[in-house]
Amino acid sequence: MSVRVLIRKPTPADCQELLALHHRSQEFHHPWVTPPLNERDCQDYIDRCHQADFEGLLICHVANDRIIGVANFSQIFYRSFQNAYLGYYADVDFAGQGLMSEGVRLAIDYAFGILKLHRIEANIQPENRASIDLVKRLNFTREGFSRRYLKIDGEWRDHERYALTVEDWH
To answer: Where is the N-acetyltransferase domain positioned along the sequence (predicted)?
Structure first.
């Protein structure tokens, strides 16, 4: 199988391309995720990617380095927990092509290999079937249901909780 995507850390030079992706995909992302829609918030996101408890990765097309999605690991804990929360989203122009599955797979390899995490958790709204299907393809296990778990777009939303450990990854 040929490699179609790569992952890399965002830089300030990526801000305009990210903003264009976010605006183009805004309706597609609603109500699942609300990425930055202005330059200040985008720069804040890129700055956050340099903090110890957060790792943001761009998923890019190998052919032209175009950003086709984002994978984030937030609230990274070490010591006896070694856990992070995974969030991701795609550019609407590349949805449904399997590129995000490939990119998130690379991001998980990075989290277990480079970040030395033991466990990754993904919390997904039950109506977001595409995202649930993605984590299931990647061998995540459904662990439970969290009522009114996150406030997104001004509303507290239910989520299904999925997790993957390094032992189940390889």
So the answer is: 5-167
Average pLDDT of span 30-34:
86
CA dihedral 64, 91, 12, 120 (to 10 degrees): -110
Q: What is the structure's pLDDT at 66?
A: 96
Task: For residue 110, give both structure tokens.
Answer: 């990075």
CB within 8 Å of 156: residues ≥ 6 apart: 148, 149, 150
Residue-number span of the structural domain to which 91 is assigned: 5-169
Count of domains forming the chain: 1
Q: 71 with 17: CB under 8 angstroms? A: no
Nearest to 120 by CA among 74, 57, 155, 159: 74
Distance CA 132, CA 126 (A): 8
CATH number at residue 11: 3.40.630.30
pTM: 0.94
